[in-house]
Sequence to fold (495 residues):
Amino acid sequence: MTRPKVGLITFGDNRDPEWNAVFKAMTVPRHALAAEALSRLPVELISHPEPARSREDINDQADALIAQHVDLLIAHTPCWTSPNLVVHGIQRMGIFTIVLGNRDMATHGCVGLFGASGALSQIGIDHKRIRSDYSTEAYREALLPIIRAAAVKSRLKGAVMGYFGGRSIGIDTAAFDPMGWRKQFGVDVEHIDQVEIIRRADLIDQKRVDTLRMWIEDNAAAVLYNDGKLTKSKFDFQLACYLATKDICREMGLNFTAVKCMPELSNNYVPQCMTATFLPDNYDGEEGEKEGIVMACEADGDGALTQQILKIVSGGAPTFFADVSHIDDEQHTMFCVNCGALCAWYAGRSSSPEENLSRITIKQSIRPGGGGISSFFAAPGPMQLARLYRVDGKYRMAIIPTEAVTPSQKTIDSFIEGRGPHQLPTLFADIQFSIEEFVDEYGSNHISGVAGNYTRELVEVCRMLGIEPVVFTRQADQPADRQTVRKPQDTGTIA
Fold:
């Protein structure tokens, strides 16, 4: 898991008489307290041992933080300090900033906080203001969502998506504007023809394929080979496609991907379901632990970008991609289903990859190209569903805190009977909000997710990136069937 890199600068009064007589004794210990509390959070903290009081101090500390590529600056103003010097440091850093004050009446902390943040507002520098008493719990509650959101903004800038193919089977909501991404998010797009996956797969050393296949055969619930579509040679070629895609991503420095697959690859070669099963996971049978690489199916750019946001905000957890395949109105359950884009981790949510794989059966794909799919029902646990979509060209994000659940056997039997032989990996999500309003608002047939709950973080991400958040959640004082969607204008704060 990757932690956000946080830079801390504590600003002190630059006037020697006042510093020595009053503010040094209050600022220095509070700098240590702030650093200590921050160091207990799941972040990588980088700071100087002393407060910065002069332009030279500020420049030196800021440049050191820039060299360390921090995601966020915490401009700590525990006492009075000249606002213009705080602004100078923040402008030199050029990244999202929290201006941090305290609640101690002896420090003049409000004066320092409002002097600096008011000046930032005057010149249009986006920032967040927080007052905290240096307790770990207060820091965690107030700071972590903003820190994680700032890491998203920082790490999207300069990221590259590998876009294999083009629009798949007419899915307009999967299409996107690469230069619009460049402007709004700082993300570049590298367009790669799908034939490169096929070409590279033919060159993969068979020993690599054998190692991966034998690990799957040894640990999966079953690999149901047959003499038709799921032969060992077809499965080997699917695994070679996965290894080729992984190699391309690393060689080209791709941070996340979207692969068209249908219809050319799924009809004439093999579907890319094994890539979707293992690429976003943090483990595979070839190399062991690895960094997962986001993959969206059907060349869904906005789906891939949503997954990348979820990956960063969660500290690198595996993400998933699926269709909103069915909504059970009576059970308030969403069936999230797709050919192979629920990565293996979700089968068991276990730190043991073998345990996750033991819950997966490799079954024959119904696609004309043959090959296999990973069939399983996702294990229960907290989930954050989300989706970027556009209304009249402007981005919104659907934000859905939920739980993956195990439905009744009756529901599962009905689902299997209804789907027939087309058994795909499925996550059942509990959705305790107005289904009617969801249907009226939601802007895609696809949905993405990550384990955990990051609703507050995603609202902050939206604020920082110019996206309108739409939070679908249950209000404590209303029954599930009377929920209202929190429209963009209602989502400025989280209760």
